[in-house]
Design goal:
The structure holds 2 protein chains of 2 kinds. Chain A is an all-alpha fold. In chain A, about 65% of the residues lie in helices and about 0% in strands. In chain A, helix 3 runs antiparallel to helix 11, helix 5 packs parallel to helix 7 and helix 15 crosses helix 17. Chain A is globular. In chain B, strand 10 and strand 11 form a beta hairpin. Classes of the chains: A mainly alpha, B alpha/beta. Chains A and B meet through helix 2, strand 1, helix 3 and helix 17 of A and strand 21, helix 11 and helix 12 of B. Chain B: Keywords: Ion transport, NAD, Sodium, Sodium transport, Translocase, Transport, Ubiquinone.
């Protein structure tokens, strides 16, 4: 450890203030602080500090994503081989064959996402003279997980660049963005390259157009066909879809990690599922068409709803920031997510649009919650004044 | 009418290095200093020059904007140095003690019969006025004001802070006299907040409230908020527990006797030395701790959350009852960001087992990370027991938005109320500093 430290200290020398590469200090700092939590001590304010920092928080989210990611790799490979081999069940595909095949398909997406995104982050950190924020560690992993596996890499790269540049840096960087960057990337691709982002052929690697297995449940429903998957299949995730959003169980493991570590707001997650269930029940009660009749509990496990609510809606920067606001925000994310699914079959993935919509309205929700506090204070002042006048 | 307060939000940091309850007399300091920086927003105007002989209680300087408020010598001796910093700002007025206890006598005053004006003028003349802190703004009270209530907290919840129950044990008469005196200065009441089973609950001329809950339950800010919240335009005063006894003593004896009991705490102080020391305000810290290796040990006048960093041979803060020595955390931690590692560092976060494991912790001054953009939400609310939105108030202060600060309750807070936010927040934001700057802005703009 000491040896590594000494080498690092040597490597840092040209980056110190007054030296040749002074401007590039954020770049070397990012590597250095990744290896070592720095020896900085408190200069003002409280003399002691909590062990938590943004790196720890962000890495926790990455850890929470791992179950969904690993399952996604397996499922991507399994769906492909299942179709290739013409097996009876997805689960009949040999486990390691499926996993390795999936890993080969998914890893390039992750690499492209990280390389493109982090490059932009580093450039902006150096340009703005601040440290590299860790937020992209999460965003960079989320993006490939919510894309179809066959997205051309250059499209992915452009979507990532759009999300980081326009979605985040244009607003002032980490902590300032209005929309969730990962969803911004997906929404960009969704509208820019609809052929690669929707339809029935894209959800399985080299999916055949006429094959029913190539479709997502939401796509099937939108066409008015009946769904061939059971609740268990959908919850476990043995279905086609974006890379890692299919398994509600894997997502819920991540949700448990986020909620227990208080990194993700349990209010948003619980509120979100409640909102989706309520909207589903309302539709069931009317039941005017096949989409409306789709059981409310199925809504919770199909598509990206769970993934979106757990990993995207909880992004603290773009979500509501007050406690009450989080309940309202989460509830409406789920509520509108199911509503968009049912009312607008052209956009079967409603949760993405619902969360982006709620991202925009989160400050408004907070405004009204805070206004409650403000008017309480004003009432107290008025009461005190009235008391003073009578006295 | 007493009102018991129970708060749930907050955080009790259980640290190693607490002081035993014995009180000893500290060795006499040869030099004492009054530091204008301890009196926030006071611009000092010197009365005496370097080399002048002073008696205890003799005014050294007064406040430029409130000339009646005088700052007096804690001991008799000669002014040996007036230390100035950048822009000739006065940093320390040092007095070399002559070892005599010559003090200016103002004559005894019976607090029970004295009028408010009498009490006020003696406090101002006798050098006790600076003990009175006003909210809003957390500065020394204006001598023109009449507050709607006065709050005294005799319940210390800050980590390792000196316990008023200990240092007031033999000062009950003076404490009572001080409370009686203060009770004449307010249009409302004096509120004394104590912990459960306190020996001070029979104090007269004050409403005594029992406070329960984690830190910051002992902060007057929280107590005011729960008992008699401050509205725009109102003034509430707060006085430290031992300071009340010093005030009481002024009336009982007619002399300014700034006796200060200081708890020496923290893991870098020897266990045998960790106890209460009787000394005098402005004493040199070396009279208590000698010389320490400040490269590896931090000397803090005050508690670990709100105290001032000191060097060797510097002087105690005017208001502090605690002297903390903790190790400097100037060390690297390999992969220190890994969740659920470094559980020995106290933490309020879910990504550490620290809270689950419980027990007392050693702390150092490592920042445990770096400054980052404000990303995480909801963590500040966990340690803020007031009905205030901390993140939004902090942002309003950063933006200097006066109306929004007002709306969000800037008048009710002091920097110390945000000390736990300094500690817990992921982005390593200096919340106390931001609030202080916000309050300063309000002070100049609204006043």
């Amino acid at each position: 450890m000491k040896w590594v430290r000494n080498k690092l200290d040597q490597a840092r020398k040209p980056f110190e203030p007054g030296q040749k590469f002074e401007k590039f200090a954020p770049a070397i700092n990012a590597f250095d602080t990744f290896l070592f939590t720095p020896n900085h001590t408190t200069k003002k304010g409280a003399h002691i500090r909590d062990v938590v920092d943004l790196k720890r928080t962000m890495i926790t989210v990455v850890l929470a994503l791992i179950p969904a990611l690993l399952f996604g790799m397996w499922n991507t490979g399994a769906q492909y081989l299942y179709q290739e081999m013409g097996l009876a069940n997805v689960t009949d595909v040999p486990f390691w064959d499926a996993f390795i095949e999936g890993a080969i398909l998914v890893t390039p997406l992750i690499i492209v996402s990280y390389v493109v995104g982090l490059t932009i982050e580093f450039i902006f950190a150096i340009y703005r003279g601040h440290e590299v924020n860790e937020g992209y560690l999460v965003t960079g992993l989320l993006i490939p997980m919510i894309f179809p596996v066959d997205i051309p890499l250059w499209m992915l790269a452009i979507s990532v660049a759009f999300a980081v540049l326009i979605g985040k840096e244009a607003f002032g960087g980490t902590g300032m963005n209005i929309l969730n960057p990962a969803l911004t990337a997906r929404a960009f691709a969704f509208f820019a390259y609809p052929l690669y982002m929707s339809g029935n052929a894209i959800w399985v690697h080299q999916g055949a157009t006429d094959s029913i297995s190539g479709e997502t449940i939401l796509g099937t429903l939108a066409q008015g066909k009946s769904v061939a998957y059971s609740f268990f299949d959908a919850a476990a995730g043995f279905i086609p879809g974006s890379v890692s959003e299919t398994s509600t169980i894997a997502v819920l493991i991540g949700a448990a990690v986020l909620m227990l570590t208080k990194v993700g707001s349990w209010r948003i997650i619980v509120g979100g599922f409640a909102g989706a269930a309520v909207m589903g029940l309302i539709f069931n009660a009317f039941g005017l068409n096949a989409l409306m009749q789709f059981d409310w509990y199925m809504h919770l496990v199909v598509g990206g709803l769970a993934f979106g609510l757990v990993f995207m809606a909880t992004d603290p920067v773009s979500a509501a920031q007050t406690m009450k606001g989080k309940w309202i925000y989460g509830f409406l994310c789920g509520f509108f997510g199911v509503m968009i699914r049912v009312f607008n079959p052209a956009y079967p993935e409603g949760i993405m649009l619902a969360i982006l919509l709620m991202n925009v309205f989160a400050p408004t929700i907070d405004h009204y919650v805070i206004q409650g506090n403000v008017s309480k204070r004003k009432k107290r002042l008025a009461k005190a004044k009235a008391k003073l006048q009578t006295a | 009418m007493s009102k018991d307060i129970k708060i749930r939000k907050g955080l009790d940091l259980k640290l190693k290095g607490e002081a035993s309850n014995t009180i000893v007399t500290a060795s006499k300091s040869s030099i004492y200093a009054i530091k204008p920086a301890d009196f926030h927003a006071v611009v000092p105007k010197l009365i005496l020059k370097e080399g002048a002989a002073v008696k205890a209680g003799e005014p050294l300087f007064y406040s430029k904007y409130d000339e009646k408020v005088k700052f007096v010598a804690p001991v008799s001796g000669t002014i040996s140095e007036i230390l100035r910093g950048a822009k000739r700002r006065i940093l320390e007025v040092k007095i070399t003690a002559d070892g005599n206890s010559d003090a200016i006598s103002h004559g005894k005053v019976d607090v029970a019969t004295a009028s408010a004006d009498q009490i006020k003028s003696l406090l101002l003349e006798g050098g006790c006025w600076p003990f009175i802190i006003q909210r809003p703004y957390s500065v020394i009270a204006s001598s023109e004001d009449t507050p709607k209530s006065i709050f005294i907290s005799a319940y210390a919840t800050a980590p390792l802070a000196g316990d008023p129950e200990v240092f007031l044990a033999d000062k009950k008469d003076a404490f009572q006299a001080g409370i009686t005196a203060l009770s004449k200065l307010t249009s409302g009441k004096v509120h004394l907040c104590v912990g459960k089973g306190s020996s001070l609950k029979d104090v007269k001329n004050a409403d005594v409230h029992t406070v329960k809950g984690p830190h910051p339950a002992g902060n007057t800010g929280v107590q005011i908020h729960k008992i008699d919240p401050i509205n725009m335009g109102e003034r509430v005063w707060t006085v430290g527990a031992e300071d009340v006894a010093i005030i009481g003593n002024l009336f009982l004896t007619g002399e300014f006797k700034p006796e200060r009991t200081v708890a020496l705490v923290g893991t870098d102080a020897k266990e045998a030395d960790r106890q209460y020391y009787k000394t005098i305000i402005g004493a040199n810290v070396s009279s208590i701790i000698g010389e320490v290796d400040t490269d590896n040990t931090r000397i803090i006048s005050g508690d670990v959350l709100t105290g001032d960093k000191l060097e060797n041979n510097q002087f105690l803060n005017f208001y502090h009852n605690t002297l903390t020595l903790i190790p400097e955390g100037n060390e690297y931690a390999l992969l220190g960001w890994l969740p659920f590692t470094r559980n020995k560092v106290p933490s309020n976060a879910g990504t550490s087992f620290s809270k689950l494991l419980g027990g007392k912790r050693e702390v150092d001054t490592n920042l445990n990370g770096e400054d980052r953009a404000l990303v995480v939400t909801g963590e500040m609310e966990e340690v803020m027991p007031m009905d205030i939105y901390p993140l939004q108030l902090i942002k309003a202060c950063m933006a200097g938005n006066i109306e929004r600060m007002e709306n969000l309750g800037i008048y009710e807070v002091a920097p110390e109320d945000f000390a736990l936010i300094d500690f817990t927040n992921t982005s390593k934001l200096e919340a106390q500093e931001v609030i202080r700057l916000g309050l300063d802005l309000m002070l100049t703009e609204v006043g």
